[in-house]
Amino acid sequence: MSFNNLDTLYRQVIMDHYKKPRNKGVLEDDSLTINMNNPTCGDRIQLSLKVEDGKVVDAKFEGEGCSISMSSASMMTQAIKGQNIEDALKLSKIFSDMMQGKDYDEDLDLGDIEALQGVSKFPARIKCATLAWKAMEKGLNDGDKQ
Amino acid sequence: MNIQDIRSYFPILHQEVNGNPLVYLDSAATSQKPVKVIEALDEYYREYNSNVHRGVHTLGTRATDGYEGAREKVRKFINAKHIQEIIFTRGTTTSLNTVAASYARANLKEGDEIVITYMEHHSNIIPWQQVAKSTGATLKYIPLQEDGTISLEDVRNTVSTNTKIVSVMQVSNVLGVINPIKEITKIAHENGAIMVVDGAQSTPHMNVDVQDLDCDFFALSGHKMCGPTGIGVLYGKKELLENMEPVEFGGEMIDFVDLYDSTWKELPWKFEGGTPIIAGAIGLGAAIDFLEEIGLDNIQAHEHKLAAYALNKMNEVEGMTIYGPKDASKKAGVVTFNIADVHPHDVATVLDAEGIAVRAGHHCAQPLMKWLKASATARASFYLYNSEDEIDKLVEGLVKTKEYFSDVF
Do residues B185 and B272 both lie within one domain? Predict the structure, then answer.
């Protein structure tokens, strides 16, 4: 591998989200708050989700971590805002398949998220990319039970 | 010390990673293994694999001799007075947990204190947290100086006559700081406390003499000193070990077994329940032979030279933050750093593309990370097989990392 191959990991759109994260912050009031960390490396995320009538109406995140974990969090919040719970969880499943290098419906328009596809070639970094998504899954699954 | 000769003993070093010659700078996580250690394991499994202390047969005797011979090598290596003071364990974590579970739980009560430092590895923090919770004892921390070292004045101010256990690492896995164990032990003893030493990062790199240190317990891991994974040692003073209960019960550690009661074997076997780590101990013995042949003094001098060289070169890179003492003479071969605003994970990934292996994260020392006000750091750690040329490659890699990320930003 050379530095050129690194470009498959560090795509420009990833760096853009890292440098200018979307939906950074904390939601007030009756939102769901999910804290999650990656104990092997110290990355951490606090995700707040506002769910109304089975729909994610708002999502924000705070956290510390590498370019991959923070850009993934930024993209995830962007992608699920306005989605209903079921679709958000479906997207999470597609993302998980993508990270594991499994086949997924390539006709789907995943937007910015597609840039993270290269992460699957860097096994040590997959956990960085999935942190925010796991937090989202946990929030929506647990929130659903309440 | 001829570095090319030394490198030739380590088969793993002669490979390419991602199209570049491997530069292994993660020995503080685990060291590479010389061919002698690999051969010792291979020979045991091919020629005399057998259980110890039981068989009358020839292979059983050979295995027992190998296992107990390794114990004697360890005794000499750390200069313990008696061979009964050397207990084989799974590693430093198990050794420290044994002291916590056996000695500490039996001897501590409410109002007693356990004293550790802010720089400890999780394995020398959590066992004591658990003891404190179950006995009602209090856990206290010795603070650090600006450069990450410990001052004896702070030790004196933290340790009191209520302190029953002081437990400190000899060399920091993050800062590379070498702690004044002998002096700390003296302060612990003056206050009536016992002294426990985490030697995981010292035994690979320097001469250790437990009688000179006068510590009461000393823990080490084989895999960090050219030995196999899964083998470690707990040293304890005989009079303390004799009065301690075993932690694991079962085969191998018993004397007589009755229906409702049993008695234990003598030291050290009462602490080695179950079939012991035979191959691991034999491999550790081979690692000790190897290190002694080269000489711990030579290894330490080589690492000091590398640390000084690395500090010098890395400090020249703009945007570099180096944690711990800036004076290489106060340091073992560990340099922990951050570069510009690049996250250490990203640093490690970019360096890996160049074939350079470094560690990124919190290094199993979250309280220390908090003290450093860093959520994560990158770490390069050196051993006897590393060269100045490899440090040059690291520095080149770091400059490229910075450039790479300044391009995309």
Answer: yes
End-to-end CA distance of chain A, in Å?
Answer: 48
Number of domains in chain B: 2
* Ranges of H-type helices in B168-295: 181-190, 210-213, 238-242, 278-294
Residues B140 and B278 in one domain: yes
Question: What ipTM does this complex have?
Answer: 0.84
In degrees and rounded to multiples of 5, residue B380 shows phi and psi of -110, 130
**Mean pLDDT score of chain B:** 96
Report yes or no on B341 lying in a domain: yes
- One domain for residues B114 and B133: yes
pLDDT in tens, B150-199: 999 999 999 999 999 999 999 999 999 999 999 999 999 999 999 999 99
> Going by C-beta distance under 8 Å and a sequence separation of 6 or more, which residues neighbour residue B134?
B105
Q: At B133, which CATH number? A: 3.40.640.10
* Strand pairing class (B23-24; B356-357): parallel
At B239 the three-state DSSP class reads helix
Note the pLDDT of residue B407: 65
> Do residue B409 and residue A2 have CB atoms under 8 angstroms apart?
no
- What's the domain range around B332? 3-27+296-408
Q: Is the same domain home to B140 and B253?
A: yes
CB contact under 8 A, A41 and B409: no
pLDDT cut 70: percent of chain B above it: 99
B226 is catalytic: no
Is B390 in the same domain as B334? yes
Chain A hits for B353, CB-CB cut-off 8 Å, are: 1-3, 5-6
**How many whole angstroms separate alpha carbon A45 and alpha carbon A29?**
19
Burial per residue of B326-348, b for 16 or more beta-carbon CB atoms within 10 angstroms, e otherwise: eebebbbbbbbbbbbebbbbbbb
Indicate which residue of B364, B374, B376, B399 is catalytic.
Answer: B364
Which residue in B362, B375, B408 is closest to A10 by CB distance? B408
Taking the whole predicted model, whether its pTM rises above 0.90 is answered as yes
pLDDT tens-digit readout, A103-118? 887 777 888 999 999 9
Chain B residue whose CA is closest to A119: B349
CA distance B89 to chain A (A): 24
Pairing relationship of beta strands B16-17 and A55-64 according to DSSP bridges = unpaired
**Whether B139 and B261 share a structural domain:** yes
Whether B375 and chain A come into contact, CB under 8 Å, resolves to yes
Query: Which position has the token pair 């045991």?
Result: B44
Average pLDDT over residues B78-99: 98
Q: Are B51 and B39 in contact (CB under 8 A)?
A: no
B187 and B65, same structural domain?
Answer: yes
Q: 3-state class of B352 per DSSP?
A: helix
Identify whether residues B9 and B124 lie together within a single domain: no
**Residue A2 banded pLDDT, cuts 50, 70, 90:** low
Question: CATH number of the domain that B384 lies in?
Answer: 3.90.1150.10
DSSP state, residue B171 = B
- pLDDT tens-place string over residues B287-306: 999 999 999 999 999 999 99
